[in-house]
Amino acid sequence: MKTNIEERACDLAVYIIENKATVRSAAKQFGISKSTVHKDLSERLERVNRALYAQVKEILDLNKAERHIRGGNATRRKYKGE
Length: 82
Description:
Helix content: over 70%
Order of helices and strands: HHHH
């Protein structure tokens, strides 16, 4: 999937903002690695579009703060057989 890197970063940011998505789900949706999504959003997007970067950073920070809860819930579901 060869596209303009700046355009891809903006598309990723819009997807995450609209869907309140995680890096993992965005990577799956766009068919790229989590590392690429993270690099696009944390480094490239900041140079390209600061306003979009600020919005997506809020969501990424929230996801980071909640990840231990998601992990605990996933483990609970795994062992309860849900």
